[in-house]
Write a structure and sequence with these properties.
The protein is built from 12 helices and 2 strands; from the N terminus they run ββαααααααααααα. It is mainly alpha-helical. Among the domains are: 135 residues; 103 residues, no CATH class. The two termini are 22 Å apart.
């Protein structure tokens, strides 16, 4: 990794502001905003990893509708993944679309609602408390709506409507739809009003993953992967296809009419869109100028491989549904695990950049400062990659085979990797000028 090159500041940065990686001109954002998101996300990551060790036998026995299993799943989806995405967007919107988030106050309000919502939902599921569960669900709906409206307001004035713009526009719409299904499922947990709970859970999960998470990955990674890999000259056609296909899939899933043909169409579009995303990322890796692949990009690449496996498993597992719970559980674990690895990989890139920019960048040329790569040990990070990838792979295989003891052992390996990453990132965040 080479040190980040920054353009000379045009004005003195206000106190508490940091430079955005990859932007030559000065773009200032309050570092506490993404910092709060990342800190809360890492806490959910650590707790989710601990919970995964606890529920691993449940997964092996295909008891994935148990409240404690759902609680751990939401620590990863709503806590780790969503908070990470919100924080990354707050920091990198100037890089992605040339404009910072429209309202810092609204972004902070959505963060507060999101955190309270995660706490309420997880506590409600764990303690079988209907008031906590519903309050958490409504807080999360408010957080998603607030962030979505803030994102839409940020996008509206943008004139250069490129791949990233349309990906984020589609994600903002899916962000409004996702909590609607979540609230319905929260009521259903006690009332049992849904005739086909599996179908509703499946739609809720795939609107969130395909319509929001995947579209954000397409849009933001379209700017970040070339920057981190030093990749130039790759075609953008797969990314455009991914945006169209994933948006079509999420729209089809959100429609209340259409029955089985609609779900089949949504599944086909989602698989094709994911393939296009993988193809675009593969082009970035192929055109990279840096031969060595650092730990962060290894984790991100492992996540992309996981997405490819999920695409292979999706048609059969979703068609069989509850008729083959082993395959269905393995599929969802691969899908969620792949996104987890992709997000985890970017923490090794984003957080060191932010810390370097905020604390060491202003001293560049005035005194000796460490390089970005020197803010953490790559050897330790490579160990972390091995733990996370091998732990996830072992957990998926053990779950499919119904081996509860092996599943718990594999979950421990994965958890060791997650906890190690939390320690590494926390130490990076504490780096200061000597």
């Amino acid at each position: 990794m080479v040190p980040l090159t920054l353009g000379p500041p045009k004005a003195r940065p206000p106190e508490g502001a940091s430079l955005v990686p990859g932007v030559g001109a000065v773009t200032l954002v309050p570092p506490w905003l993404p910092g709060r998101h990342f800190g809360a996300a890492m806490l959910c990551y650590a707790l989710g990893a601990a919970g995964l060790v606890f529920i691993a036998p449940d997964l092996a026995h295909r008891n994935f509708f148990l409240p404690r299993v759902v609680a751990v799943v939401h620590l990863f989806t709503l806590g780790w993944i969503t908070l990470s995405i919100f924080g990354a967007l707050c920091q990198f919107l100037p890089v992605a679309i040339g404009r910072g988030v429209r309202s810092v106050a609204l972004a902070n309000a959505s963060f507060v609602a999101q955190t309270l919502g995660v706490v309420g939902l997880v506590a409600g599921l764990s303690l079988s408390s209907r008031p906590l569960l519903l309050s958490g669900a409504f807080a999360l709906a408010a957080a998603f709506a607030t962030f979505s409206m803030n994102l839409i307001a940020t996008l509206l004035p943008v004139k250069e409507r490129n791949v990233t713009y349309w990906a984020l526009a589609g994600a903002s719409v899916a962000l409004l739809t996702t909590p609607a299904y979540g609230v319905v499922l929260a009521f259903n947990l006690h009332d049992g009003v849904l005739g086909d709970r599996f179908s509703t859970v499946g739609q809720h999960a795939h609107i969130a993953l395909l319509g929001f998470v995947m579209l954000v990955i397409v849009g933001v990674a379209h700017r970040l992967l070339p920057m981190f890999l030093l990749s130039h000259g790759a075609s953008e056609r797969p990314a455009w296809a991914a945006v169209a296909l994933l948006s079509g899939s999420a729209t089809s899933l959100a429609l209340p009419v259409g029955g089985a043909p609609r779900l089949t169409l949504a599944g086909a579009l989602g698989c094709a869109g994911t393939v296009a995303l993988i193809a675009q990322a593969a082009l970035f890796f192929k055109h990279r100028k840096r031969s060595a692949i650092d730990p962060g990009m290894r984790l991100a690449g492992s996540g992309l491989v996981g997405l490819a496996i999920a695409v292979v498993l999706a048609p059969l597992s979703l068609t069989r549904g509850m008729g083959d719970p082993r395959l269905l559980t393995a599929y969802f674990m691969v899908l969620l695990g792949a996104v987890t690895l992709f997000v985890a990989g970017h923490y090794y890139k984003i957080v060191p950049f932010l810390v370097w920019n905020h604390r060491f960048g202003p001293l560049l040329g005035k005194r000796k400062v460490p390089r970005v790569v020197e803010l953490y040990s790559e050897r330790v990070a490579h160990v972390d990659v091995a733990l996370l990838v091998s732990g996830l792979l072992g957990l998926v295989i053990a779950t499919y085979l119904g081996a509860a003891a092996v599943a718990r052992a594999a979950a421990l390996v994965f958890a060791a990797g997650a906890w190690l990453q939390v320690v590494v990132i926390a130490r990076v965040a504490q780096k200061r000028v000597a």
